[in-house]
Amino acid sequence: MQPGFADLPLPDLRLRSGDTLLPGEGAYALEDPCLAQTFAQVPLAGAAAVDAAVDAAQRALRDPAWRDLAPLARERLLHRLADAMEADLPRLAALEALDTGKPVAIAETVDIPAAIGWLRSYAGWPGKIAGRAGTLAATPGAFHVYTRREPVGVVAAITPWNFPLVLAMWKIAPALAAGCTLVLKPAAETPLSALRLAELARQVGFPPGVFTVLTGDGGTGAALTSHKGVAKVAFTGSTLTGQAILAASIPDFKRVTLELGGKSPSILFADADLKTAIPQAAMGCFFNSGQVCYAGTRAYVHRSIYEEVLDGLAQIAASQQIGPSADRKSQLGPLISARQHQRVSALVQRAQASGIAAVGAGSPLPGTGHYLAPTVLRDVPPSAEIAREEVFGPVLAVTPFDEVEEAIALANDSAYGLAAHLWTRDLSLAHHAAAQLEAGTVFTNCIMLADPAFPFGGMKSSGLGRENGIEGLDAYLEPKSVVMAI
Ligand code: NAD
């Protein structure tokens, strides 16, 4: 254990369904990626535990203590959970940092406050979820028609390891605001913040079965997402797993939202304000050690500023303080696992073997742990593997361009369509490019802004549906029309 986390109390690691303890069905080791050392054993939920959790969630859906809770009381309960998270912020942040390897100072100032912000934002919805009233348009006679917006049912949420609590909350907050019940399977690597959240939810009075956490691996996730009692699956993770989940949803017509991978472009036009564009383009790729679904991992830079931008990117890459999660000076942590480290290193090695050159010296790395230095690759051909595959590590592929339309075409030449970033001082160019870019979110002169107020999601292979915004709430509501003859 890192000395900084020696006194950190772990949440209860036993499997539970609602408030009922279940025996674990096997266990797996939880590792600190900064030390590459195991520090806990976590239960691996099997089919019986998944059944029990989904049954409890179905019972909770019909339980008057949840179903008949007045919307304003549901708002208050969600705010009480947000209050409890605020009071518990240092511990939630430390658990997140221990599990993911991200610097604890970033978990304290970015991750946990974001999760609380999402919960508070959606906590304002229950009393405002209303249908519409009207008449019929094409049918003669007198009718009164109204619509109801009902909770879709039991939700299975499956989350990845890069922003464990934030991405879980993108699902939990709208699902509970809509009146659904939810079973969350966090990534095997990072279950601690979710388990702590379940403890807090119990403490503030959520009825049993409304919010359950099941620990386990892809097998647990597959058993949960294909369970007949689940009405909707909300998933963030890889494109391959997203395809498996979508296929498994077919027999029961489960509702599905998928936030998948990305290979998001960053375009630096000739008139970009380089003082902000260079650091933003660099950290838009390197933040969280590149483990960000909408990281800007392909930079297209106008030839007139190409060498200056490459120098700036390389300097920022080399200046990062890379270190363990408990160290408050760390700016970047390790990758999540040996497997992820091997995958990213192999992609960089193959790029270099094909003749692609790295720029700059690279930052010093700690001796243990799955650390990888931020890497800038220059003159990357658009057809190169490193320009097309999602890397999920701090690796930026840079390519020059000459014409605006060429840059837009290069940016759109991808199977993915999650985000795009552009830097220019020309308003017309910014609006033109934003309209042309095939991406769920276009950032102009800024990066990495997600907010509960606007929808987030992907075009093409980057996913299906949207999270956040009112669109994110609608994904947990089923419309019903009621027609009454007068
Ligand atoms: P993954 O998609 O396998 O795992 C994400 C989650 O899905 C985990 O909770 C996992 O246990 C669960 N899961 C795995 N198989 C499942 C199945 N068949 N049914 C239901 N749930 C299942 O991702 P990974 O293996 O952890 O990472 C592999 C790659 O995915 C990374 O290198 C990266 O490129 C990408 N990734 C993307 C994101 C993102 O935010 N878009 C997040 C993590 C990883």
Secondary structure layout plus pairing:
Layout: E1 16-17, E2 20-21, E3 27-32, E4 37-43, H1 47-62, H2 64-67, H3 71-87, H4 89-100, H5 104-123, E5 133-134, E6 143-151, E7 154-158, H6 164-177, E8 181-185, H7 192-204, E9 211-213, H8 218-225, E10 232-236, H9 239-249, E11 255-259, E12 264-268, H10 274-286, E13 296-302, H11 306-319, H12 338-353, E14 357-359, E15 375-378, H13 385-388, E16 395-401, H14 404-412, E17 416-417, E18 419-423, H15 427-436, E19 441-444, E20 459-460, E21 463-464, H16 469-474, E22 477-485
Parallel strand pairs: 7-8, 7-10, 8-9, 10-11, 12-13, 12-18, 13-16, 15-16, 18-19
Antiparallel strand pairs: 1-2, 3-4, 5-6, 6-22, 11-21, 14-15, 17-20
The structure holds nicotinamide-adenine-dinucleotide (NAD).
Notes on the protein architecture:
With 486 residues, the protein is α/β, with parallel strands linked by helices. The chain has 16 helices and 22 strands. The protein folds into two domains: 282 residues, Aldehyde Dehydrogenase, Chain A, domain 1 (3-Layer(aba) Sandwich); 188 residues, Aldehyde Dehydrogenase, Chain A, domain 2. Strands 14-15-16-13-12-18-19 form a seven-stranded mixed sheet, sandwiched between helices. Strands 9-8-7-10-11-21 form a six-stranded mixed sheet, with helices on both faces. Strands 5-6-22 form a three-stranded antiparallel sheet, with no helix packed on it. The N and C termini lie far apart (71 Å). The mean pLDDT is 96. The structure holds nicotinamide-adenine-dinucleotide (NAD).
